[in-house]
Amino acid sequence: MTMTTTIVGLFDSEQTVHRIKNGLKDHGVSERHVNTVTWRSLSEGNDPWGIGRSGENTTAKLVDELESRGVPSTDAREFAEAVRRGGNLIITEVDDDSKADEIARYLDNQESVDLSSRREKWRETGYQGFNPNADLYNREQVEQERNRILGSGEEARITKAHEDVRVGKRDVETGGLRVHKRVKEKPVEEEVHLREEHADVRREKVDKPVKGDKDVFSEETIEVREHAEEPVVQKETRIEEELHVGKEVEEHTETIRETARETEIDIERLTEGVSDKHGYGHFESDFKQHHKSQFGSTGKDYSHYEPAYRFGHAFGVSQRYKGREYNDLEPDMKRAYEREHGEGTFSNHRDAARYGFETARRRQRS
Predict the structure, then answer these.
(1) Residue ranges under compositional bias (Basic and acidic residues) (predicted)?
(2) What's the pLDDT at 78?
(3) For residue 129, which of 89, 86, 83, 74 has the smallest C-alpha distance?
(4) Burial of residue 55, with CB atoms counted within 10 A of its CB: 0-12 exposed, 13-18 middle, 19 or more buried
(5) pLDDT score of 158
(6) Which of 41, 151, 258, 313 is the most buried (most CB within 10 A)?
(7) What is the pLDDT of residues 112-152, one digit of tens each?
């Protein structure tokens, strides 16, 4: 029997949850095995299980739903508490242990919220445990909670990274050639004609007188030496072949195909809940006119400055920054802008961002 593992990730950004849901497809997880539950979906009654439609005991019903999917009771309560305060959940079901580990690592790498750390933040304002009868936070309470946790003393950091692929070369041994000389013997046979001498004494009987005064009785020695030919072997070494051992160098070109990873950062705009009257499109003609008069001589078209106008507009209409003026907010805006567009980019677009901010503020007051 196959066991199903439920993996729950908690995130502050609803946009992040939807992006991760799409990213899970690349990890082989079917869309039907992934659910998202956000503060917005519960408050509007659009959650996947319909538990927010009754408007009563919504978080308690969320606990029951999570427990029915195998989430431990303690964790289920705290996940529900997090959603009540504006958090967002992604719930993934897998039936393979190794796949479960892979998905858990993936969610951790997406800057998921640590429940134990978040619980300590709740306790700073008197949280003593999950209350099944507590109502969902309203929009203002959610904004205050996010500002308290992420805006004062705890800066949210998201790292953007990429991999550089550098193709070099190194010397590796791929084989070689060893030449070894050894000596072996082979029999050689050849006929040679030899001559031998043998001394011989032949006796012959005679009978004749001695003539004259020849002394035949004096001592006399005759010596005959024998000779013989014997084979003499001489060896002459002759070089019949030379082996020249060396290396030939051959060069060729290879095409290296590799993949380089990089992270993409989605920026959640601050215009959540803003009416169409104060939406960006309502101001765009003003921004284009301002670009034409202020930046027309730079040779850079409107699209180059549009992100700065959008950023200033978002800060100007955000309820999070209501009551704060541009000079007070500019350091925060600069940090946020350069996190998205790169360090040092704000200075060249500051005037556009300021105009976007102040135009949005004027329209709100009017």
Answers:
(1) 338-353
(2) 92
(3) 74
(4) exposed
(5) 44
(6) 313
(7) 888 888 999 899 888 888 898 888 999 999 888 888 887 64
Closest CA to 281 of 313, 246, 237: 313
Farthest-apart Cα atoms in the chain, separation: 182
* C-beta separation of 89 from 36 below 8 A: yes
Q: Roughly what angle, to the nearest 10 degrees, separates helices 350-365 and 302-317?
A: 40
Residue 132: Cβ-neighbour burial (10 angstroms; 0-12, 13-18, 19+) = middle
Nearest to 280 by CA among 302, 234, 311: 311
Residue 9 near residue 89, CB atoms below 8 Å: yes
The model's pLDDT over 90-115, given as tens digits with 9 standing for 90+, comes to: 999 888 778 888 888 888 888 788 88
The percentage of residues in the chain with a pLDDT greater than 70, rounded to a whole number, is 87
Distance of CA 23 to the CA centre of its chain: 15
Spacing of C-alpha 209 from chain mean position = 133
Residue spans of the domains in the chain: they are: 5-151, 276-365
pLDDT digits (tens, 9 = 90+) for 208-221: 887 776 677 777 78
Helix runs in the chain, H state only: 14-23, 39-44, 58-68, 73-84, 97-109, 115-123, 139-146, 280-295, 302-317, 326-341, 350-365
Alpha-carbon gap, residue 248 to 258, rounded angstroms? 30
